[in-house]
Amino acid sequence: MSFKDNFIPDHYFESVLRIKPEFLAENNIKCLICDIDNTLATYSEPLPQKKIKDWLDMTEASGVRIALISNNREKRVYTFNSVLGYLTSSSAGKPFTKRLEKLIKKTGVKKEETAVIGDQIFTDVLCAKRAGIRAILVRSIDTRGKPFLKFKKFFERHFMDIYRKRHGNY
Ligand SMILES: [Mg+2]
Asked: What is the pLDDT of residue 147?
């Protein structure tokens, strides 16, 4: 694995809602560790929308363990998780891997059967790859009013070009 591979997701989806239990089963993914902001909800939504909650419920019902990992503070994560009840890690310091590794241990699922889902290459994907687990990138739900995120997206495009070359167009 080259250094560059740390920035290239294993899979890409327009939204978490497109990720089906069949896909997870085919890829032997038994635990999903999900980023919150712009992956499951916008920054301004304290709770998951019904369609997101339904997707999480359906995924969990298919036998996949779910946990939440966020660089956001504890209050945000605690409130968001109040209607879900998953294992969580807040102020996780992604792309550093310490909190992710700890969370994976708590889930009891093997690393090889775990994947991280997130919307950012430089935090979510990089964190997963450094920890030696698979990364699923989704499109950010909302980047409006976040010029810094747009700036990062500009650099992420380079890595997504490599992803497309490897996987064919998505
Ligand atoms: Mg995010």
From this structure: 67
pLDDT, tens digit, for every residue of 46-62? 999 999 999 999 999 99
Going from the Cα of 110 to the center of ligand 1, the distance in angstroms, rounded, reads 24
Backbone phi and psi for residue 32, each to the nearest 5 degrees, phi listed first: -110, 125
Query: How far is ligand 1, taken at its centre, from the CA of residue 25, in Å?
Result: 24
Whether pTM > 0.70 for this model: the answer is yes
Q: How far is the CA of 74 from the centre of ligand 1 (A)?
A: 15
* Residue-number span of the structural domain to which 76 is assigned: 3-167
Residues around ligand 1, an ion, CB closer than 5 A: 35, 37-39, 119
Centre of ligand 1 from the C-alpha of residue 169, in Å: 23
Query: Cα-flanking dihedrals φ and ψ of residue 14, to 5°?
Result: -65, -30
E strands in 25-167: 31-34, 65-69, 87-89, 114-118, 134-138
Domain of residue 93, CATH code = 3.40.50.1000
